[in-house]
Amino acid sequence: MTPKVVIFLEELVEDVEFVYPYLRFKEEGFETFSVAPEMGSYKGKK
After folding, report:
1. Domain locations along the chain
2. Taking the C-alpha atoms of 11, 16, 18 and 20 in order, what is their torsion angle to the nearest 10 degrees?
C-alpha cells in the first residue's frame, strides 16, 4: 500500500513552502494530494 500525504494550500503561500515538501514526498514514494479552502487556482508569493 502506498503511503498518502495531504499538503494544504492557501492564497499567497510561499512557493517553496509548497513545492519543496511536495517534491520530497514524491521522491519518497508518497501519493501526494494538495487541498485548498476552495477549488480554483492559487497564486504563490515567490
Report:
1. 1-46
2. 180
CA atoms within 13 A on the CB side of 34: 18
User: Using one digit for the tens of pLDDT, what is the confidence trace for 2-43?
Assistant: 999 999 988 888 889 899 999 999 999 999 999 999 888 877
SS3 label, residue 7: strand
User: Which three three-digit cell numbers place residue 18?
Assistant: 509548497
Single pTM value for the model = 0.76
Q: If we measure between CA atoms, which residue out of 36, 39, 40, 42 comes closest to residue 14? A: 42
